[in-house]
Amino acid sequence: MGGQVPEGWPVVVHVSRPAEIAGVLDAVSVGRGRPVVVLVGGAGGMDDDAVRKLEEVLRRAVLPVIDACRATVIDGGTDSGVMRAVGRARSEAGTSFPLVGVAARGTVALPETSSATGAAGIDMHHTHLLLVPGTEWGDEAPWIVDVADAVAGDRPSVTLLINGGEIAYDDADRSLDRGRPVVVLAGTGRTADAIADAAAGRSGDARGRRIARSGLTRIVPIDDLAALQTALVNALRVADCQPVATDQHLDEGEVR
User: Fold this and answer.
1) What pLDDT was estimated at residue 1?
2) Which helix (H) or strand (E) holds 195?
3) What is the C-alpha separation between 105 and 136, in angstroms, rounded?
4) Domain range spanning residue 82?
5) Domain total for the chain?
6) What number of H helices and E strands is found in the chain?
7) For position 25, what pLDDT does the model report?
8) CA 135 remoteness from chain centre
9) Which of 35, 84, 85, 133 is surrounded by the most beta carbons within 10 Å?
């Protein structure tokens, strides 16, 4: 089920069929029956300052909700984009929530195998990595929603979409199809901004318009930290979830 990986790596396990997911999660002690935040998107076109700003938003607004709601985060697990950002933010904040990556085997570099050209590194701040069948980016997308369902069970879950490319549209559609609310962080570029523009009538993008029109979609500006916390808490519907209050807005001068 799992291969030998160097010390300091996430716990790495292989999953071949959806029916195996629950058993694998139990075997590596990923608690189930917990609220879930699914993190999707990328960081394409974001410069260093924009990525630092994103990390600050995650640290100040998103991680306090995850901690207060005792949630698990599920994403793509690689050392890139929003996955790297949440891993770094988690490490710097010293929090201990489960951070579970789900990646197609043929798209990531592992120590015990020869890596395909263009394979991505693993973010070392993740706690677990589930490797699923596939050789192309996006092959992991249906598995992410299945893993999220298996972890959450009858507990609530939410998808947070940040930036993103073509695959992010599919990620949002899959979440909505499962009845999972989607919070779109506007101002982060690409797919997130296309959906926000469609919601505001500034774009005719049919995919963005379809996602924006869903009653499960909430669009929040990246600078409005309080609104982001509120959207996540409302989606998770955890009665005693009271995150540490954050300032209303993030000013440029506040980014470290």
Assistant:
1) 53
2) helix 190-199
3) 9
4) 11-237
5) 1
6) 9, 8
7) 97
8) 20
9) 85
